[in-house]
TrEMBL record:
The lineage of its organism: Bacteria, Pseudomonadati, Bacteroidota, Flavobacteriia, Flavobacteriales. This is T9SS type A sorting domain-containing protein. It comes from Chryseobacterium endalhagicum. NCBIfam families: Por_Secre_tail. It holds the Pfam family Por_Secre_tail. The keyword Signal applies. The keyword Signal applies. Residues 1-20 form the signal peptide.
């Protein structure tokens, strides 16, 4: 009787161990290097995903979306029934991957990982100006009051590392030594312009230092400083205020709510695109009214809100 009990106990422990091991996870060389649950490609190289040893495998992929939760279906990868799956930086970016496994009577799925296309975000620039100190005179061109400034930001600062900033359109990228358009000694993702010029940048991704992007002269912003008729930089200049307004939902596809109840009404709201062009403007906006931004082109925007006391708030939002 005793040997039989020992045998049953060993069999039971083996069964529990089998159950405990039916817990698949995905590993790969790039996974977690930049983001915990993502694989970021530098180019079109391949990457091999792998899981532990089980009886059978089926790999699945799901297309990425802004939506939460993701409503795109999980699709079985045709022929992907082995312990490993090879993906590449051209066809598989912006997809999630998971593997379903069986071991005996155990069936389980791994947590999902993402093949991220973030490393390929095209360069974009955000221009920020103080209301009352500038006017838009053309596509990508501003007249700005002497004594004021224009702040230029890389729209994807997490992505890009070392920058080269220009004050005029260069002959050709990458930057060459002695190029008079290069602003020497400036390598960060922000530049504040106080002199006339045509501004843009060239930057290399931090994760993939050999992958560099040029903003493109068509996206440079021309700034003309002068004593323009609209300038008012005296003691009654609009006072900048902390970005303390509630902006929601963010990102948004159609309606955006701005403000706080204590302010009641905002005398003026301006939405400015990355080139510095005013894309939308509204007067006497109440804090609890939706602002329809559905007509805006998807991208990053600055929203400048002036309350009834003349205080100015600046916030960023994303139009889906």
């Amino acid at each position: 009787m005793k040997p039989k009990l020992i045998f049953l106990a060993v069999l039971f422990m083996a069964f529990l161990n089998l159950k405990a091991q039916c817990n698949p996870t995905i590993t790969s060389p790039r996974l977690g290097v930049q983001f915990a649950d993502k694989i970021v490609f530098c180019n079109s190289e391949t990457e091999t995903l792998s899981t532990q040893t089980f009886g059978s495998y089926q790999w699945y992929k799901q297309e990425w979306t802004w939506q939460t939760p993701n409503t795109n279906p999980w699709v079985a990868v045709q022929g992907a029934t082995s312990q490993t799956l090879t993906i590449n930086g051209t066809d598989d970016q912006l997809y999630y991957f998971k593997v379903a496994v069986t071991q005996g009577d155990c069936i389980a799925e791994s947590p999902a990982v993402m093949a991220d296309g973030f490393a390929y975000a095209l360069p974009a620039m955000i221009s920020t100006m103080t209301p009352g100190t500038f006017e838009v005179v053309g596509q990508g061109e501003l007249n700005v009051c002497n004594g004021a400034s224009v702040k230029f930001d890389d729209a994807f600062p997490v992505l890009y590392g070392k920058h080269v900033w220009y004050r005029c359109a260069p002959n050709s990228p990458p930057p060459s030594p002695g190029d008079p358009c290069v602003i020497n000694g400036v390598t960060g993702d922000t530049y504040i312009a106080t002199q006339s010029g045509e501004y843009g940048f060239y930057a290399c991704t931090e994760y993939c230092p050999d992958q560099c992007e040029f903003l493109g002269t068509g996206n440079f912003v021309k700034v003309n400083f002068g004593n323009w008729a609209f300038c008012n930089l005296g003691t009654d200049e609009t006072k900048p205020k902390d970005n303390s307004l509630k902006i929601y939902p963010n990102p948004t596809a159609q309606f955006l709510y701005i403000g706080k109840e204590s302010d009641k009404v905002y005398k003026e709201i301006s939405i400015i695109d990355m080139s510095g062009k005013r894309a939308l403007q509204k007067s006497n906006h109440r804090f609890n009214e939706p602002l329809d931004v559905s007509a805006l082109v998807p991208g990053n925007y600055i929203i400048v809100s002036t309350d009834s006391e003349g205080n100015t708030y600046k916030n960023k939002f994303i139009k889906k």
